[in-house]
User: Fold these one by one.
Assistant:
Number 1:
Amino acid sequence: MQGQSATVTGTSSDRRTRITVWVALAANLLIAAAKAVGGLLAHSPALMSEAAHSVADTLNEVFLLAALRRSRRPADRRHPFGYGKERFFWSLLAAVGIFVMGGCFSFFQGYEALRSGADETQRGYVIGLIVLALAFVFEGSSLLRAVHQVRKEGGFSREKLKDPALRTVVAEDGTAVLGVSLAMIGMGLHMITGQVAYEASASLAIGALLVFVAYRLGREARDQLIGQAADPEQSDRIRELLAGQPEIDSVESLLTMQLGPDSTLVAARIDLVPGMDSEEVEEVAVRIKREIAEAAPEAAGRIYLDVTDAATLAAERRRRRTAESPAATGERGGA
């Protein structure tokens, strides 16, 4: 029942995220075309950098839509834990796209503007500024939609914002609004002073901003791909639940791993009190799994308990103490 509830919640969240991504895709597609035309007419490096930024964002929305669709495939023999990590993979590709298509191209535009500054003109800059003003409105609308969904789903903390697709859209739209602002400032100062260095600096600043955002998104996607643990609050809640069971003598270890935005694997090694027969152990294990699933619905169906008897546990502790002794490690005082 808890697993079905988590699935329904995840499906509803996916539907909202999909709408948010489609809104961002439509906005970025129109804005990319407008920025490219305006940049060519104005010969503006800052506007061309913003065009590359929007093209990268458009491609990334396609990646995120693929992630939303593919991550919901049911588990099979090759992937017994499901395809939830597809989202992390496509989010990593999106981060690479932001870095290569957005950041590197923006650095190139800024460098070229500084190198050939004498050839720069201000022809068509009024059109360029109008394009940027419209882009600011559309990007801001897309950002407001993403922020509204994030607030509905719990807030902006890393523990709450688990969906990499939604996190990427928020980062892209926020960066787009800031990038458009930088481009407008650079173009405005270029028009007022006649110095292309202002606009080139804006292009370089946009590039640095995109590289930073790409690094942050890529690092988070990497951590999740290689097996990031559940948030500490959830882990502590599960550990306290286990420690509070009268049949459990000690919790030797608790391991968690995020399998997707709403899917978590829980594996615990526990030592039961002595004197329990096999039937009692089975009943206790079933009850504990049920209680963990109620406390953490996203872990339902993926909870594994390793029950260790007291004799085995004592022998393992002796081996551990022996391995860590000075004689075994070769430290001072040992053999």
Number 2:
Amino acid sequence: MLIDTAMRLMGVGQLVLMALVVGRSGAPARIRWASVLLLTSVAAYLSVVSPTLHLWRSAIWPAVLILSLNAPLALWVFAHLIFERPIDRRLFALALGVTLVDWGFALHARYVTHAMPLAASAVQHAVAFLLAAHAIAIAIANRGDDLLEKRRAFRLGFVIVVGVETLGVVVAESVYGLMRSDIWLMLLQSGTSLLAILAFGAAMLSANAELLFDAAAFQPVRAPLSPAEHVLKQKLDAAMADHVYRESGLSIGVLAQKLGVPEHRLRALINQRLGYRNFSDFLNSHRITDARAWLGDPAKVDLPVLTLAMDLGYGSLAPFNRAFRDATGTSPSDYRRSAILEKS
């Protein structure tokens, strides 16, 4: 028990240090706070389930408990933000509601009935499992978008490791309950958690937390292109001129194969030389240019926006609308209306 407690406290300390570094960093506010919430939620969970800390007897137990229960939702939000995926507000509200209800049942069980309803616990575990699994799926699906190799690997590994740990916790709690007494299971959880925390902490702290978010790393290098970079840029420009960016599902790996170049060299060119944050921004810069031309063309006035989006390589209307609004500040339909009326 002493070894288990020591490892948990070491993990909590490292998580708090990581949260302080991220909180004081230059990351965008929503990334910063999502990261801090996730790190403190994991720290809260490591603390709340420790049988020797007796937090359930303290006045801070309700606050620590709600943070602990919030960990899967915090991971889900974090994965959406770090991989630049839109958050479904209805799913977020539903998951948050389940967490708050479960928190209320837990407080009632602690101070009144001393028994947690099985149905409430089962629903919370199911929601936590789905949130963690979806976070892992987001990380895997978007693993190729980031143009910085080290940051891409760190983000992917971070979300997957935390997600897998969460899935393991949910399964263990479903079988053994929240306050487990099997010392081998406790040591397994605290030991694996500490190893992961120390590894990620060492990587992130040494990089000033820039492995988690976009800092100045995507600014183009102000230097002449090398001969190899010049040749690669010519190949890339030719592919763009042939409208390769309109292919649905085009990834940087596929594009590198088409150009016959190593993927890491193409990533470096697009990020460090051309100044794009990620591959999606690079594709959108070309696609939205075409979209503006098509929307302002009277000959294409009857072309549905959905058809236009699909022809540009988008898999559905939502990501096209989002990318177009980010680039122009207006919707495709409003842009078309203004463009056509100006020409009449």
Number 3:
Amino acid sequence: MSAEEREAARSMMDKGELGQTPEQQRAGFDELFASRPLGDDVTLVERTLGGVPALDVRVAGADQDGVILYLHGGGYIIGSARTGANLAAPLSRRTGVPAVSLEYRLAPEHPFPAGIHDALAAYRELAGQNVVIAGDSAGGGLALAVLLAARAEGLPQPAGAVLFSPWTDVALTGPSIDSRGDYDPLFSRAHMAESAELYLGGADPHNELASPVFADLKGLAPLLVQVGSAEVLLDDSLRLVARAAEQEVDVSLDVVAGAPHVYQYFAGLMPEADEALDHAATFIKNRLRDKSVGGVA
């Protein structure tokens, strides 16, 4: 896709209205994403995982060893296991690995760290299997928090983690939160500040589980981070990757020029989105293979 085509795609998006209630935000998000077709080869089956509601994302033929635990985005305020299935399904299809999308609790009804407790409980139940955790936006930050919490608890790390446009700094200290505000077609500092306030419920935004970009990352599983340059959260990825590399974490970064937040949602429309999912699938398969044969994970 050319720079002009990416600009045209961004021009079709607009920033959401500030000041909406969580209920209004959820209704609007669900209208756009909760009924997107997943493909005739996909069946969703309700289950619980660590006592937390979830959806098995069953793609026909996806019966390889391992499991993808998917954590949906939505600023910790909106989204669901069903919206997470929109990205869990193509990852499962491309890897042949089963996926499960988690219905973790949302703020402000259940502020930080309720969602982390849910995601850790789900991971704890899966930890005997070969697991990759994946997530987008807030779900990417949540995936990192699970890795940190699992390390603190003495649980094994997953085989790897895939992070699409992760929100890693709810303190909003990255330069791009302001410098990219006019370029980002979806968010501004004000949008992110609204979500952060509701999520934190008065907690310290510099807590490493809320903002993993400030954490000691030593010993975490290998990471694949994908982000677009047209994002106020660009530096949430750039700083995370630099910190991970400095602390000897195996980390890879994909940046697509001009791409918006969680551009993987444009698979089938934007070649770079399909390429990103293909790369993520290769990462997942390689990490699961290396872990299963006792390689470095």
Number 4:
Amino acid sequence: MPELPDVEGFRQVLESCAKGRVIRGVDVRDAGVLHGVDARRLRDALEGRRFGTPERHGKWLLARTGGPTLVLHFGMTGRLVCGRADDPVEAHDRVLFTLGGGRQLRFRDQRKLQGLWLAHDEADIDRLLGRQGPDALAVDRREFESVLASRRGALKTALTDQSVLAGLGNLLADEILWRARLRPDRPARDLAETDRRRLYSEMRRTLRSSVSAGCVPPRDSWLTGHRDERDPRCPRCGTGLRRSRMGGRGTVWCPRCQPDG
């Protein structure tokens, strides 16, 4: 599932492919990815407009045009692809934006769990993103500690709740908690101040590395690089990793590096 680093990569694709270019045509090949707008209204609103500088908040992407804003969420399998207008269309290309200079931006999505919205003004954007917490890459330490200290429930559940902190998903949360040596089922508001500060520092480090890679990289030195192995071992201490489910999510941690309490 795309997480913050993936969506930041899509933002960079959008910026390099489309920023400053006029939208010559909008071809909706599958209206099932449109939310609150039909294909005709999407074409009428965007054709002739020019893409500006895109923005990201958590897992949401805002493609501004100086008028209406195209809002994208990638669900589990969505992505943005930049190519040429005469490139062959693939089976999962749902919406094609033909741009000036012969370029084409494509929203490609196999499972269609989220998709595209059209926001006419800032009030529309606020309605779509109003329940989102602060962006995980932009939040400062004071606000991060504040939202955790007031949060009931398990630590991992808090980190992956988009209304608490926007952008973290399953892989990032497990990686960050492993690096911070904190069990995922610890109560979030019971952390000591030193724990919260360490957690924030490890989140920042993990996000910076992941954004540079364009994903949560499955490196040998990372928990992510071992979580799907048949007999997964902690890359730090060699202990067998534990698996469980929290909030319906597969969760992986090291019982030695991430002890109780």
